[in-house]
Structure formats: C-alpha cells, structure tokens
Amino acid sequence: MRGPLDEAIEAEYRMLTGATAVVEMARAAGLELAGGEEWNDPMRATTAGVGDLIKTAVAAGARRVIVGVGGSATTDGGLGCIRALEPHARLAGVELVVACDVSTTFVDAADLFAPQKGASPAQVALLHRRLERLAQVYEDEHGVDVRDIPGSGAAGGLAGGLAAIGAELVPGFDLVAEATGLADRIERADLVATGEGFLDEQSLRGKVVGGVLELAEAAGVPALVVVGRVVEGMRPGLRVVSLVDRFGEERALADTLSCVEAVLRAELSGPDS
Q1: Could you tell me if 40 and 129 lie in one domain?
Q2: d(C-alpha 64, C-alpha 57), whole Å
Q3: Among 79, 115, 162, 262, which residue's CB has the most CB atoms within a 10 Å radius?
C-alpha cells in the first residue's frame, strides 16, 4: 500500500455486513502519516493509497464502499486515487459513497486547507491552479464538472475526484447519525455533550459539532461543547468549555480524558456541587 508521500505502508479497511466496506482515507493519505504539517510535502502528497484501499475492498467482494474523508495530507484533487483505480470498469456495479464533513468546493480546497498541510502561500497558488486544470481534465475525461459540487473540495479535492467517476457525496454526519439512530438517542437525553480539538465557525458547518447541536436544538435538549481550544468571538449563547482555559495547556493535552470527565461531572452535578 502507498502512503501520502508514496512510501510503503500498511493500511486497513473494514468490511461490514451486506458487502459494504468502509475506507478511511487518512489511513492511507493522512497528514499524520506524513509526519504532520512540518514534514509533509504538500506538492507531492498523493491519494494513490486510498485508491489502493478501495481496489482491495472491491476485490474482496465489496459492492458498496463508503469513503471517509478527513485529516488528509493531500491537495491532489484525488488524481492519485483515480489513477490507482484504473481501469474504472472494475467499479462496475459498485456504489461509491463519500462521507464529507465540509461543503467546500473543489478549487477552494487549496486556499482553505492546503496551508494546514504545510503549503506556503506560493504553493497554495500553485495548488489552486492545479485544481483548476484538474477540474477541466475530469470534465473532459468523465463528463462531470466537479467545480461547484458541495463537498467536492473535501480531503484536498479527493471527494471531487471520486465524484468524477460516479461517487455520491453525502454529509458524513448525516450518514453516521442515521446509522446510529442519533436523533432518537438525543430526544431521550437530559444533556448532550459534543466537542472537538479546536472550535471555530467551520465546526458548525457540516461537522459533528454543528450536526449534534442542530439535533439537540430540534429536540429541545440542552447541549454542551467541550473543546481543547475555542476561537474568540464564537456564536453568543453557545455553551462552550475550553479544556486549555480551564485546566491549562499541559494537563489538557496530557490528560484529556480526565479533564473531559471533570467538566461533565461538574455540569451534571449543577452549580451547587
């Protein structure tokens, strides 16, 4: 299996019942595998290994492949993955579903996400132009214009590349929420807690935090967001606890679980505890 910088790696996928496979793209093309922002090569990082995983799952009998896209090292527009899947006739009769957590469109992926993957301003400009050219290539080769498809910019455009060969892009939160019956669970709850490492406005646009808060609001259940850090000026009225602010950075990073537990205990005990 190929990693994000074309190194040899081992990666796993999961086969569910009903010939459905789940592929997490970060297992093969994740920023962590590339050594993080500092060691990543954003111009060279490839999604080829994601194509290898999908191909392996299909060869094992998968007729539906769900691809989770997040935490990527790549801004290759999915080209590595698409090329790895050739000939695309191997995908005949296979349903490809891409679970996205952003609505970012294809070309915008470079400007919004490439800096987080180690790209300099000059590299961002090059990646932007590369995605523009690639969008035209996809339209010419596959008859699909990925430029304005919501979510096509997820994982540096991997979602758009898969859309070009017939994949359906769906909100990842909705997919998981439906599978787990989350709305019903929330309706029976007294308090809903959600969170992530860094809370900003993107967290409320298609990601888990935003989805959970919408369901909680619809059910009339109070919600608490527990995060590592929070950007200043977040939406007024949102109940947010920053672990770094409450416990200090050292403890918040080294003992995150106990910090979260302490916050929830205090919340459930009430102000007089």
Answers
A1: yes
A2: 9
A3: 162
Q: What is the pLDDT of residues 68-86, one digit of tens each?
A: 998 999 999 999 999 999 9
Band (pLDDT 50/70/90 cuts) for residue 233 is confident
HSE-up (13 A, CA, CB side) for residue 38:
1
Do 232 and 206 lie in a common domain? yes
Beta bridge partner(s), residue 195: 226
Domain that holds residue 211: 182-269
Nearest to 198 by CA among 242, 132, 145, 247: 242
Residue 3 lies in a domain: no
Number of domains in the chain: 2
Whether the pLDDT of residue 170 is over 70: the answer is: yes
Residue 224 Ramachandran class (φ > 0 left, ψ -120 to 50 alpha, else beta): beta
Task: Evaluate if residue 256 carries a pLDDT over 80.
Answer: yes
Question: Residue 78 CB: number of other CB atoms within 10 A?
Answer: 35
Provide mean pLDDT across the span 168-196.
92
- Give 67's strand partners: 23, 98
Backbone phi, then psi, for 235, in 5-degree steps? -45, 125
Q: Evaluate whether 130 touches 58 at the Cβ level (below 8 Å).
A: no
- Tokens found for residue 266: 């205090």
Task: Give CA–CA dist 176/180, Å, rounded.
Answer: 6
What is the C-alpha to C-alpha distance for residues 240 and 229, in angstroms, rounded to an integer?
A: 10
Q: Residue written as tokens 């967290």?
A: 203
Evaluate whether 237 touches 227 at the Cβ level (below 8 Å). Answer: no
Given a cut of 90, whether residue 98 has pLDDT beyond it is yes
Residues 71 and 188 in one domain: no
